[in-house]
Amino acid sequence: MALIDYKNVEILRRDYLVLKDVSFKVNEGELVYIVGKVGSGKSSLLKTMYADVPIASGEAEVLDYDLTHLKRRQVPALRRRIGVVFQDFQLLTDRSVEDNLDFVLRATGMSSREERAGRIHDVLNTVGMANKSYKMPHELSGGEQQRVVIARAMLNTPSLILADEPTGNLDPETGESIFALLNSIVASGGTSVLIATHNHSLIDRYPGRVLLVEDHLLSELP
To answer: Are 12 and 56 in contact, with CB atoms under 8 Å apart?
Structure first.
């Protein structure tokens, strides 16, 4: 089943052509890398998938949502089914790890405190951060913060996780542990992970499909 299906998509930012003739599919349980130079359009492509950047033309479906005819009221429901991992973490700095995750669950409609606590424990345990739930973000290393961000992305059991340069602010050893974690999420079944990255050594170590963004075009590498 295709979670993402783009056909002849064009992406513009302030009337500037970012990408054209973009056609590709991503199925359940796939690990897909998007590579290309800084400023080539990797992030813009990911942002179209959760309706942060509009599709200028073409056909685009994500999780059965038609992005070209998406109503504003449908956007929150789409985003609840997608986990997003940002390079700069975007954690709430005035709240503990647990409160960061609890904020997301409450915002997405989980009213039971017991249910929220159980879900938070599960995702933190998955990313190896169960013993750091009381910590504030500034008390964590960069790698630990990124693990919390991945836990946050997993809260609503998404079909799709989008990671935008998840190792960009991390040292090589920590970056590898983050790639290993994302790879294990795919291996556990069901969830597809798209990673925008320029870290080719880690792609070699954790192989998946590779899409290249270059000269406003997207192509799949053999």
So the answer is: yes
